[in-house]
Design brief:
The protein is mainly β. Helix content is 15%, strand content 40%. It folds into six domains: 68 residues; 55 residues, Seminal Fluid Protein  PDC-109 (Domain B); 84 residues, no CATH class; 30 residues, no CATH class; 159 residues, Jelly Rolls, CATH 2.60.120; 164 residues, Jelly Rolls, CATH 2.60.120. The strands form seven sheets. Strands 5, 6, 7, 8, 9, 10, 11 and 12 form an eight-stranded mixed sheet that branches. Strands 16, 17, 18, 19, 36, 39, 40 and 42 form an eight-stranded antiparallel sheet that branches. Strands 20, 21, 23, 27, 29, 32 and 33 form a seven-stranded antiparallel sheet that branches.
Amino acid sequence: MSITALPEAPSRATPATFSTLADAFLAALATFVTEANALETNVNAKEVLAVAAAATAEASEAVALAAANYVGPWADQVGAAAVPYAVSHLDQYWQLVSDLADVTAKTPGTDSEWIQIGWTVQTMQEATYAADAEESDTYVITLSPVPGALFDGMIVSFKANTANTGTATLNVNELGAKTIKKNHDQDLATGDIESGQKVLVQYDGTNFQMLSQTAAGIATDTIWTEANSFVIGTGVGTAEEKTLSETRDILGMDVIEINILLNAFRIAINGGLVKFNMVDGIMDEFEDESGVDTGTSTGESYDSGNDLYSVTAGAVVEESITNNSARGLYGGSGTREKVAQSFQVSSGAITCAKVALYLSKTGLPTDNITCTIETDDAGKPSGTLVDVNATKLLAASTIAVGPDWVEFAFAGTFSLSQSTTYWIVLARSGARDESKYVGWRFVHGTGDTYADGNFEEQNSGTWANVIDAEADADFKVYSASVMSLQSELTEAEANPDTVRIVLMEEDVDAVTENTDLKAYASRDDGANWAQATLVDEGDYGSGKRILEGEADVSGQAADKTVKWKVTTHNSKDLKLHGIGLLWK
């Protein structure tokens, strides 16, 4: 380091500047002394380093020289020995400093003709390793040679005599018991050290930090057991037996599988692929209809331009239309308490969603009108609903004065069989009133306009023809807008027990999964079906949902013929863009 130069010294030869220069010179002396002292300290320190370096170099030279002239263990030597000459003895290395006529006459470690220059490997190991002999968590070891003190960074290892049962300590050569920590600053858990385990630790000035792995192992160590379950840890030393389902939850396998199918869906779209086969799974993005059993599916509408399926709109399956005079529904007791029209479904069994009746209003009725579908009892309405959903209530005030078609859309769909007589029954909730009522349009006396039914009215609890047996009211019966979409078979490599179903769905109406939309899987070629409980996993596009669920097919016949089926309900419309399966 440099010392700041002193200013110009004062001189008696120039009295005019003497005082000024003297003041400046004296003021600079304090800095000069400080810097001179610092320089002395620096020089002294470097001298120490130089001496240490020289000693190290000298020692290294001696070691190198001894290594180059090592002749073996001293006990094996005989005869004369001349410098340079080195041997090993008492687990240490020794260098000869003067020639000997008889090497056995002077013993290393005892006589001055020998100087120690290092330890053997075993001696160095003994300086850092020893076996514990205690019967508790207080491990005690004795190193040789004896360390003077513990120091920061000191590394030792020991063989544990017992397994720990909690917090443990290590006492080295009676220098004091120090706590053993893992993961930098955590106390040991029971079983982190096993009996007989070799443990490596390093002193940090306060505690011993464990450098070797704990006996408990990695927190998520997983072992498959014969009981069809996993042993899995949720933290070090917390291994517990988990079922396959619980293990899948811990590892997040459901999310992984959903993303696999989502990516397969996108690959299939980009590649214009038909049913896309995977290992133990498929994805069909409906590039065409080859993956769908169109002969078994019903109510589906395929859009080849957008590669999707939607629900075919409901249709009128039975009707009578005359648009003639009206029969008033008075209510209460006496004449026209109720009116009813019978019908049969002639085109095959249907799923009914609604009916429409040609009605008009007289006056301003304020009560409600109830429309029900009832079974037949000897040619008359039985009073029993064909299904719990076969009833609908409307406010009479919503019906027009002039005749018009009024729809009664039921809360849920229900089945109607072919060639079975059913009754559409109208009743009012209010008291009998012949000035304010709803009328149902009908025709009579012109021949039987609807051969599969007739129009009746209830008077004082008894049903009878309206005017004559040829009377028929105007009505329409609608099939539901429902779809049953079923896949072609896929042959699995082995019998699956569970099948994960993922639907790429877009609402047209507000669709509730597991109510308006249901999904099923089969492993026995559709002989039996297991329903999956669908869960909304979010959107994969604008307004397009990922619905997924898992079906347990283990109870079905042992087969490898996998199929999926999707059904819609309650006349809800939607779009299906793709369906994927993964089985195991």
